[in-house]
Amino acid sequence: MKRLARAAVAAALLALPVAAAVARPIAYADATTVMGDRSRDGRELSVFHAPRHWWSAGVVHLVLDAADSRAQHQLDLVRANYLVRRWNLPKAQANAYVWGGVGRGRGREFDGGELAWNAGFQLDYETLWFYSMVKSDWHRTSSFQHRMDTAQLGVALYEHAWDRLATWVVLQGRHMSGDFTRDAEAALLLRFFRKTHWIEAGITDKGGFTTMFMVNF
Amino acid sequence: MVRNAFLAALIAFVATAALPTLAADATRTIRMEVAGLVCGFCAQGIDKQMRSFDATHDVWVDLARGVVAVELDPGEDITDEVLDKALTDAGYTLTAIRRVDQPLAEVRREVENEPRR
Question: Is the pLDDT of residue A93 over 80?
Answer without folding.
Answer: yes
